[in-house]
Amino acid sequence: MEKIFRELDELKFELPSWAFSDAGTRFAVFHEEGAARNVFERIEDAALVHELTGCCPSVALHIPWDRVENWEELKEFAKEKGLRIGAINPNLFQDPDYKYGSLTNPSEKIRKKAIAHVMECVDIAVKTGSKVISLWLADGTDYPGQDDFRSRKKRLEESLKYIYDNMPEDMYLFIEYKFFEPAFYHTDIPDWGTSYLLAEKLGERALVLVDLGHHAQGTNIEYIVATLLSERKLGGFHLNNRKYADDDLTIASINPYEVFLIFKEIVFAWRDPELSDFSKKVVFMFDQAHITKPKILATVQSVVMAQELFAKALLIDENRLREAQKKCDVVEAEEALMDAFRTDVRPLLREYRKRKNLPEDPIKVFREGNYMEKRRRERR
Ligand code: AOS
Ligand code: ZN
Ligand code: ZN
């Protein structure tokens, strides 16, 4: 138990600022009474989640949604609330100029505008003490013939190279992929292989970001994670769950076993002496949109869920599993995993939180507190 507690101490999550403000589907945006209205309130909400769970010390920002005049002030504000600024996410998908692409756009003028936006984000990262730029592009085409694939690839590589070469030497560039949407015919960065190819050409500080909702049905994500870990090319995750497409649902709400198997790859990489230095730097960010759930409560629930599944992965008897693998005893190998997966880790986590003076049941504490009432009053 002591060993597991020490390992749990190293498990930190990064909360996205955008999870705390009104969001919507393609069809409508729904208002939650008391939801954060600006970046300061979003940081306050993230700080509350951290206060209740003790494992969410950083908050990711999205620019321009979170843009402020004075970045030092925002950094200080976060610090006072017990947080630091995490990944800076450039928004290259809402400006109408990007209709035909951002970093890949056929127009040099628009490409330069997109690059300038990312460079502004680099500057914000420097000012807020962040070390990560996390890039997701909506770039793609809707119809065959719309643009030339190889030309777009070349433009993308050139744009990324400019960004990478002009970033501070201790800053990381995460490249996220998604197999479709918003473009429906082709997407410029559709899969981990393309992200990897781009990252590999750029250099050591360019890494792949795996969003759990960005794959075709049936894709074996844990295998992708293992591959990227072994190549030292995994930067981080956008944790969420999906049933149909990029649903951005609460982690493990649809398929907890998949999340457990992904965490197993992380746990084994943490414990591998050749990989632990690298794998312990992998960032666990959430990227979820809570539309039918209250946002802060849903975030607390997500953290609890992720922590539980990670604790289950920590319980896997690695020696037993490897012995079974050596003998090609498939049933025994699977049972070694399932024994851990079937374990109820809630008592263990309650004990863990108690020792850290954290609420044993953060969901209950949030529900019973007057956190939302206060917010509804103050945020009219
Ligand atoms: C979009 O599908 C991606 O998951 C991005 O990470 C995006 O930047 C984020 O969801 C915020 O809109
Ligand atoms: Zn994402
Ligand atoms: Zn997404």
From TrEMBL:
Q: What's a single GO BP term from this record?
A: rhamnose catabolic process
User: Upper taxonomic classification of the species?
Assistant: Bacteria, Thermotogati, Thermotogota, Thermotogae, Thermotogales
State what protein this is by name. L-rhamnose isomerase
Q: Which organism is it from?
A: Thermotoga petrophila (strain ATCC BAA-489 / DSM 13996 / JCM 10882 / RKU-10) (Thermotoga naphthophila)
Keyword annotations of the record: Isomerase, Manganese, Metal-binding
Manganese as a keyword of this entry, yes or no, is yes
Q: Which InterPro entries match?
A: L-rhamnose_isomerase, Rhamnose_iso-rel, Xyl_isomerase-like_sf, Xyl_isomerase-like_TIM-brl
All copies of the Xylose isomerase-like TIM barrel domain together span: 69-247
Q: Which GO terms describe its molecular function?
A: L-rhamnose isomerase activity; metal ion binding
